[in-house]
Design goal:
This protein is of the alpha/beta class. It has a seven-stranded mixed sheet, with helices on both faces. It has a five-stranded parallel sheet with strand order 2-1-3-4-5, with helices on both faces. Strands 11-12 form a two-stranded antiparallel ribbon. The chain is built from 14 helices and 14 strands. The longest helix has 20 residues.
Length: 394
């Protein structure tokens, strides 16, 4: 009799419920927001043939970049709506709160652009997965490439919340390790629109590299003012610790040209990335960001595990997710590490000039491919309690 039951009989409530929470209308909405929701919907649609009669429901919420709002929403989803997985989040402070909830309730979280290394460090969870990047991955490429000795000096301007603070902390540590020097730092409120005083401080520091640990509209505004104050071409090199094609599109190539960054993914990298981007663009009228592409990949991998195990029971699904590599247009042959990081390659990119760009949205020159072994903190150095001594010795 059990063998004759349909596949969805092992699905709790008869439906797999995904809760997508991110910044839907604020400074990071172009990086994640409605575009991430679309990418997740595309993944669900693409998985229908494998899922068969297993239904998938998507809940969407805006955390407004407020930890109390985000945590309260996810808590309600878990306690009342019985969701199986939390997706995206894309805010470090909110993510750390969500991590506590999913650890307590043994549910899955698939995180997008989370900067804080705490999520897969001291605060790691066996069911929490960082799909796109963290602060170390974002700053290691530029810092390791551009810092050769004490003559290579850095000034940091960061957003005054968990993401910005953690990003600057990690970057400074890497600069010191490479023999470079940090000559100054400053942090601005999330709501800041006038960066003139901060940029004057950066200019006065005479640092070779000025790195911005912010994103979205914050980065767009600071780069516009960078150009207005004549700092473009003034001898200091601008570095973005988090850059997306949406930012370049919003500001324009004249403003962003020459900006260097590390990215987890670029739509124009190869035939597979371009094929996905073409489908996404047809429905969104914009090319996908690395976070949106990552959420498509994460959703696909999670649902493939559901389809293979024919259940949404957390332990079975997570075990399958860890067993099988991620091999898609976002990451090739990538695997989930014991600390929850998806170990994949990164790209060191520089924004092109208009003359170098050959088509709409053709924004990046790929300077180098950064292998996953160099992009992330080694397991040996991990402070995640889930990383065993055996894993560290590999």
């Amino acid at each position: 009799m059990l063998a004759a039951l349909p596949a969805h009989s092992q699905i709790s409530d008869g439906v797999v419920k995904l809760g997508v929470i991110n910044d839907q209308s604020g400074p990071f909405s172009s990086l994640t927001g409605p575009g991430s929701v679309l990418a997740i919907r595309m993944a669900v649609e693409d998985m229908k043939p494998q899922l068969g009669d297993i239904r998938v429901e998507i809940l969407v919420a805006d955390h407004q970049n407020k930890p109390d709002v985000g945590v309260a929403t996810v808590k309600r989803w878990l306690d009342v709506d019985n969701i199986d997985a939390v997706l995206d989040v894309s805010n470090s402070s909110v993510a750390l709160g969500v991590q506590t909830l999913i650890r307590e309730r043994n549910k899955v979280a698939l995180y997008g652009i989370i900067g804080t290394t705490e999520l897969t460090g001291k605060q790691c969870a066996k069911t929490g997965f960082s799909w796109v990047h963290d602060a170390y991955a974002l700053v290691s490429g530029p810092v390791k490439t551009l810092t050769k000795g004490p003559e290579d000096t850095w000034y940091f301007l960061g957003a005054d919340f968990e993401f910005g603070k953690n990003m600057v902390q990690v970057a400074k540590r890497l600069v010191t390790a490479r023999g470079g020097k940090t000559v100054g730092e400053a942090f601005h409120p999330m709501s800041e629109a006038d960066f003139s005083s901060y940029l004057l401080q950066a200019q006065g520091s005479k640092a070779k590299m000025v790195a911005f640990a912010n994103a979205g509209t914050q980065l767009v505004n600071v780069m516009k003012q960078w150009q207005e104050f004549g700092m473009q071409g003034g001898g200091q090199r601008p570095i973005a610790t988090l850059l997306s094609v949406a930012d370049v599109h919003a500001a324009g190539m004249d403003v962003m040209q020459g900006l260097t960054a590390t990215t987890a993914w670029y739509w124009g990298l190869n035939d597979d990335t371009r094929a996905f981007a073409k489908r996404f663009f047809a429905r969104f009228n914009a090319m996908p960001t690395e976070s949106q592409a990552g959420m498509y990949s994460a959703t696909m991998h999670y649902l493939k595990a559901v389809a293979a195990t024919k259940t949404d029971a957390t332990d079975a699904v997570v075990s399958r997710m860890r067993e099988v590599p991620v091999d898609d247009m976002f990451a090739k042959g990538a695997r989930l590490r014991p600390d929850g990081k998806l170990a994949h390659d990164f790209l060191l990119v520089t924004v092109k000039t208009k003359q170098e760009s050959k088509a709409p949205w053709d924004y990046y020159k790929v300077d180098a491919v950064i292998p996953s072994s160099d992009a992330f903190t080694s397991l040996e150095a991990s402070d995640c309690p889930l990383v065993t001594d055996a894993a560290k010795s590999k």
